[in-house]
Design brief:
Layout: H1 3-24, H2 30-35, H3 42-53, H4 56-69, H5 74-98, H6 103-110, H7 114-146, H8 151-201, H9 206-211, H10 220-231, H11 243-258, H12 261-264, H13 273-291, H14 294-309, E1 312-313, H15 314-319, H16 325-331, E2 335-337, E3 345-346, E4 365-369, E5 375-377, E6 388-390, H17 395-402, H18 407-445, H19 451-474, H20 480-494, H21 496-504, H22 510-534, H23 554-570, H24 577-586
Helix pairs in contact: 1-8, 1-18, 3-8, 3-13, 4-7, 4-14, 4-18, 4-20, 5-11, 5-13, 6-7, 7-8, 7-18, 7-19, 7-20, 7-22, 8-18, 8-19, 10-14, 11-20, 11-23, 14-17, 17-18, 18-19, 20-22, 20-23, 22-23
Length: 598
């Protein structure tokens, strides 16, 4: 069977499983809709948390970025893994004990202010929509290639699936669906990694193959460094980013992780505080399977790509059934080749000694073909000799095809990518839903609303959020991992300082929290918008504040938030005594406040 038929079968089976689970786990109360009834076993919650955490950015885009950026791409690896440890150890148990299952609920009650709650609602929705855009984009990328449909059509299909199990099951349906999605995505990630490690490094353990030698006795990273130098790229194991930017991005991703509302809420789906700690440990084990494999996947993909494509005849690629993946990815608009020297061969070259992406911007196809069979572009750069453009988001998905693995493995990766994107999208959409139905309507606009009406509003909010998320998926502001990095930066600048100070500082009051959240969020969002959308021509280290990129500016936003909130809290009245007593009680191990919707 061909790849498309295998994809229909494997993706179809996984989707049926997700839908069956959603029907079985239909939420009948707000507690089931928001926190799955609070009775999920720690091991299953660890799997669900891992699936919620390992998004399309982790599965599809992270290894792709590392594959192109080399050493510089390690910021994503370090930031996201370190961030989860920070969340599990520093925040989750305390928030679980506080007994509120949304971040705005924590902020509103801890800071005894509906104004603070409203700012937190706006921040949660803003962060979640930024993050979910990357997930919907990932869904579209997978469908566009493997079902051979338009990216937008793929996004519509993904919207329909998420709509079904998120609206019907709420957190209960999402939790048990995510358990299944974790099994699918980790199997889909590891199987091709093991295949490629055997082929390239002679070992079934990708983590060892990545640091070992190939069949020719040369260490893979040394070989890749040599290939990069020959083609004009910077060495794969050398970094070109300023060290301050490496630190800023890593730190923003770490603390952004700890402030992400869709991950925090997972710790309220277990019965006790102790179970929250145990499920965090399980989640870390499950997450490490993918994260320790990603650098190996990136290296295998880069070596295979260069060996297969560089200085290879385009017509030869088209004739060989094993290399026809090139033309199929071309049709998606995510890969392009322009024969600048009319020799019929693909020249993949770095544009300068500093390496980097040698093709600026996305390819725009004219609908015509050139004399060598390439799909002609209207925006091919003329100031360098590079002839190949590859969207970084396709590298993990195309990797099994480039490595000439069996068709069922290629289809399995497609199912894994969809599982990763849909699991996180569902968690984010639930955050948006609870922010509207619980934190805005129930807590502020209509406190006497019936549970049935609140549940209806929650489902309506999910439906509307899915439509908006689909729009952002169709019109994404960047690569999946970059979009997600912006979301983490916004979370770092808005939520993290307020949560930390809310747990560990009795003196922190509502005035400080509101001022801090607003200042951090506005500063970070303005910086990102200025360099990424208003003046992209200035988006380089020469113009950045202290050499820090938009992906890392959340670190400065966090500092702004901390300074503003602490200064304002010192010049305004202390919190009421009962709030100070509450903060004291949070740090004692006794007690396990149940997640409450009242």
């Amino acid at each position: 069977m061909d790849v498309q038929m295998w994809t229909y079968i494997i993706v179809g089976i996984t989707f049926l499983i997700y839908i069956a689970i959603a029907v079985w786990a239909k939420a009948g109360s707000t507690k089931e809709f928001y926190v799955a009834g609070g009775g999920v076993p720690p091991v299953l919650n660890g799997m669900a948390t891992a699936a919620d955490w390992m998004s399309a950015a982790s599965f599809i885009s992270m290894a792709g970025l590392i594959s192109f950026m080399g050493y510089d791409g390690s910021v994503y690896l370090m930031g996201w893994t370190g961030g989860y440890v920070l969340l599990a150890l520093l925040l989750a148990p305390y928030l679980r004990k506080f007994g509120k299952f949304t971040v705005p609920d924590f902020v509103g009650d801890r800071y005894y202010s509906n104004a603070a709650r409203t700012v937190a609602i706006i921040s949660a929705i803003f962060v979640s929509f930024t993050y979910v855009a990357g997930q919907m984009r990932g869904v579209g990328v997978v469908f566009s290639r493997f079902l051979e449909v338009d990216i937008n059509t793929g996004i519509f299909i993904g919207m329909a699936i998420v709509f079904f199990y998120a609206v019907l099951g709420g957190m209960k349906g999402i939790t048990y669906t995510q358990v299944a999605q974790f099994c699918v995505l980790i199997f889909a990630y590891m199987v091709p990694a093991i295949f490629l490690s055997m082929m390239i490094a002679g070992t079934p353990i990708p983590q060892l193959g990545f640091g070992g030698a190939g069949a020719d006795g040369v260490h893979l990273l040394d070989k890749l460094d040599g290939l990069h130098r020959e083609l004009g790229f910077s060495a794969y194991t050398d970094g070109s980013k300023p060290m301050i930017d490496v630190f800023a991005i890593t730190f923003a991703l770490m603390v952004g992780t700890a402030g992400l509302p869709h991950v925090i809420v997972r710790f309220f789906t277990v019965p006790k505080v102790r179970d929250a700690r145990i499920s965090a440990g399980w989640a870390l084990i499950f997450i490490s399977l993918l994260y320790t494999t990603a650098p190996a996947i990136a290296t295998f993909a880069r070596i295979n790509l260069i060996d297969t494509v560089s200085n290879t005849s385009y017509s030869k690629l088209a004739e060989d059934p094993k290399t026809q993946w090139f033309q199929k990815w071309e049709k998606t608009g995510l890969l392009a080749w322009m024969d600048k020297n009319n020799d019929g061969a693909i020249q993949y070259l770095g544009k300068n000694a500093n390496g980097g992406d040698p093709f600026e911007g996305k390819p725009t196809f004219t609908g015509q073909t050139g004399q060598s069979g390439e799909m002609l572009l209207s925006n091919a750069p003329t100031d360098n000799q590079n002839e190949l453009y590859i969207d970084r988001d396709i590298m993990v998905l195309a990797n099994p095809e480039i490595g000439k693995l069996p068709n069922w493995v290629i289809a399995l990766v497609a199912a894994g990518g969809l599982a990763a994107a849909l699991s996180t999208a569902a968690g984010l959409l639930l955050v948006i839903s609870t922010s509207v139905a619980h934190d805005l309507i129930k807590k502020q606009l209509n406190p006497n609303i019936s549970e049935k009406s609140e549940l209806l509003f929650a489902r309506i909010a999910v439906a509307i959020a899915i439509v908006i998320a689909g729009y952002f998926g169709i019109n994404p502001p960047g690569f999946v991992a970059q979009v997600v990095a912006f979301a983490f930066g916004l979370a770092a600048a808005s939520f993290f300082p307020i949560i930390i100070l809310g747990i560990f500082s009795k003196r922190m009051n509502k005035e400080g929290a509101i001022a801090g959240m607003l200042s951090g969020l506005i500063f970070t969002a303005a910086y990102i918008v200025y360099f990424k959308f208003m003046h992209p021509e200035l988006n380089n280290p020469e113009h950045w504040l202290m050499g820090i990129s938009p992906e890392g500016i959340g670190t400065i936003g966090l500092v702004v938030n901390l300074v503003v909130s602490m200064v304002v809290s010192r010049v305004t009245p202390e919190p009421p005594q009962e709030i100070q007593d509450l903060v004291d009680s949070l740090r004692y191990p006794k007690g396990a406040g149940e997640a409450s919707s009242h």
